[in-house]
């Protein structure tokens, strides 16, 4: 997958070169290119913002640098066109389902807003030639889109084939599709079996795989019911067995 990020703070994206995603880039599974929006300004002050039409507080990102940046990073004659992701608190909520959808794309371009956001016409114009997704990472307001891009790229990147050492761990994750769809993952343990007088649940030491799977599912259901009853309401009844319903 190729990822381009356009931002006025390229250094904010440096963590993408670390850990799992850094290794994915070294192995050629992911290519990340970060661009400074100010490269596409034409004045001495490298201005990217201006006062909002209609008045009000704050500044708005100017359309000209954004238009030139997008035309350079994703030329209008490029085939195929990338999918443009615009982080914004007013976007569709970014979930694991959206991450799975984006992980299928060959090329994503991210446009990081700052101030009061990007002039609306930039998003409208881009939408005439590429698919545009405005995504929110939650119901709160960040100072800029860069942290949202880190969140989205990490969630998408770890789903790319070959990025995780053990692909099965994705299937067991919270929100993973399949039999555990929409469930939170239950508690996890490692050695030693007794730590400060606290025992690991004996079933996990039994070596009985079917019973362990059953125990994990029970724990996931209980935890989800306690912490996210909204997710329980959205469970597909067809995926629940007798044992689940008795819990
Ligand atoms: N005035 C905007 C509003 O109320 O919707 C908020 C602008 S915010 C200060 C600046 C930038 O941060 C946004 O353009 C967006 O790129 C990013 N941002 C802030 N909160 C976000 C969120 N919850 N999800 C995704 N991006 C966010």
UniProtKB/TrEMBL annotation:
Identification of the protein by name: tRNA (guanine-N(1)-)-methyltransferase
Oligomer and partners: Homodimer.
Organism of provenance: Carbonactinospora thermoautotrophica
Alphabetized InterPro entries for the sequence: Alpha/beta_knot_MTases, tRNA_m1G_MeTrfase_C_sf, tRNA_m1G_MeTrfase_TrmD, tRNA_m1G_MTases_N, tRNA_MeTrfase_TRMD/TRM10
Family: Belongs to the RNA methyltransferase TrmD family.
Residue stretches making up the tRNA methyltransferase TRMD/TRM10-type domain: 1-233
Organism classification: Bacteria, Bacillati, Actinomycetota, Actinomycetes, Kitasatosporales
Biological role stated in the UniProt entry: Specifically methylates guanosine-37 in various tRNAs.
Gene: trmD
Annotated Gene Ontology cellular component terms: cytosol
Keyword Signal: no
UniProt-annotated location(s): Cytoplasm
Pfam family, one: tRNA_m1G_MT
Superkingdom of this protein's organism: Bacteria
Enzyme Commission code: 2.1.1.228
């Amino acid at each position: 997958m190729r990822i381009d990020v356009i931002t006025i703070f390229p250094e904010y994206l440096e963590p993408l070169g670390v850990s799992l995603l850094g290794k994915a880039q070294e192995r050629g599974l992911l290519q990340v290119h970060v661009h400074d929006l100010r490269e596409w300004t034409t004045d001495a002050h490298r201005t990217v913002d201006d006062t909002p039409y209609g008045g009000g507080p704050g500044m708005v990102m100017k359309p000209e640098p954004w238009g030139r940046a997008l035309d350079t990073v994703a030329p209008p004659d490029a085939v195929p066109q990338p999918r443009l992701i615009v982080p914004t608190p007013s976007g569709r909520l970014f979930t694991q389902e959206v991450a799975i959808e984006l992980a299928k794309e060959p090329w994503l371009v991210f446009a990081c807003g700052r101030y009061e956001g990007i002039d609306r016409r930039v998003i409208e114009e881009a939408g005439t030639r590429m698919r545009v997704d405005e995504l929110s990472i939650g119901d709160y307001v960040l100072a800029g889109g860069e942290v949202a891009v880190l969140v989205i790229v990490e969630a998408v990147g770890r789903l790319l084939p070959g990025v995780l050492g053990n692909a099965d761990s994705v299937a067991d994750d919270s929100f993973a599709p399949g039999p555990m769809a929409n469930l939170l993952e239950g508690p996890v343990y490692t050695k030693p079996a007794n730590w400060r007088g606290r025992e690991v649940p004996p079933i996990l030491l039994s070596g009985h795989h079917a019973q362990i799977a059953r125990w994990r599912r029970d724990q996931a259901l209980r935890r989800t019911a306690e912490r996210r009853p909204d997710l329980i309401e959205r469970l597909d009844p067809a995926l629940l067995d007798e044992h689940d319903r008795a819990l």
